[in-house]
Amino acid sequence: MSSFFTRILTFYRSIKSKIAFYPTLFALSGIIFALLMMYLEERGISDYLVQHAPFLVVNSGDTALTILSACIAGLISMMVFSFSMVMVLLNQAASVYSPRLLPGLISDKRHQIILGIYISSILYSIFVLFSIQPTGDKYQIPGFSVLLGILFTVVSIYAFIYFIHNISETIQITNILEKIFRNASKRISLLLEQESSVNWNFPNSNSWTEYRCDKSGYFQDFSERDLLSFSKKNKTLLEVIPIKGTFVLKGTPVFRSKEKLSDKAVKHLLRNFYLSRKELVTSNYLLAFKQITEVVVKAMSPGINDPGTALNAIDYLSELIRLRMLKSDESFASDSGQDYVKMRVVSFEELLYQINAPLRKYCCGDIIVVQKLGYMYLALIKQKALKPSYHDILEKEAKRLLTDAKEVMKNEADLATLNTLSNKLHI
């Protein structure tokens, strides 16, 4: 049952990132509210308001039809313009910054809610328009429902004004980087809190029995609670082999068990591993490092040539690396001081190499950016780290960066700057 809820949660996370998620919910709410108002109109809510608050009710059928028609046409125009602006935003972000930023921009809840307000208001007004029925020479007017349609249109206009303001803020690279950093720092902080309960007494698992997956896909997530419960119940220890976000081929080992398991138990455990054909790694903080690194690389490419953006992104990158220096290269699921499940993570050395390799290729020709990266390494070496080896890794990557830069640069002033950095880094 828990694995079922895990799959439901993972499915919810995947559809929540779709641009149509909140608009769909708002559309359904608009239809339901319109049906509710039609029911209340049959109960005489407009007649009651005519007697007690006549200024709230539209009495003219032609006026009601004209107002609702104008509202529907205006709302559709605003919705089309807003969708066009979102597409322009996504296209610009993909071409100027990085295609990896698109999932975060698409899943922006504010844009989805605004589009949802448009759609719900349109559907509500359409249903109310259909409820205006001619009776002889007159119309049966749902006066209060028409008034609500007008109010919803006014709300949509204010939502449109906010949308213009918000989309102008969203496209700015500083706000994009801030959102990426904020989400990643929250994730790393959560992992650091979980590490405080780890006992670090997990045995070597090289000789354990390996079990393979029965399909291919991106390893999205797994039910940590179910694996922990299974390990305690069956008196065994488990190790999850693939790293979250990596592509797993059919027949690849996905976990190891200290005790040999039955076929039924293996099938039960495999149901707790969620594989998808799409790369959705919203719960993986490594995506933030990839996104910011690609922003730097894209900014330094000849087609963009925006070193200012690169310098800004390096500041956020250095702060994320500082947080990662506080985390171990291993992760465990524990209970009552006992580690039951070991989970693989990208080591600090591998992570730093993946960051530094593209930066060395695209940034070594710009002395200002190289100087910024050099001072980043210098500052990080002075920071607190969980392991002393992290400082050695930083020094090694800084040496690689300066070595490549010296081979590219020929200007004596630039070389003098690089030598000064080398002396400060003691490399």
From TrEMBL:
Superkingdom classification of source: Bacteria
Keyword Hydrolase attributed: no
InterPro entries, per the entry: DUF2254_membrane
Pfam families according to UniProt: DUF2254
Transmembrane regions listed in the UniProt entry: 20-40, 64-90, 111-132, 144-164
Keywords on record: Membrane, Transmembrane, Transmembrane helix
Coiled-coil annotated spans: none
Keyword Iron: no
Record protein name field: DUF2254 domain-containing protein
Organism for this UniProt entry: Autumnicola lenta
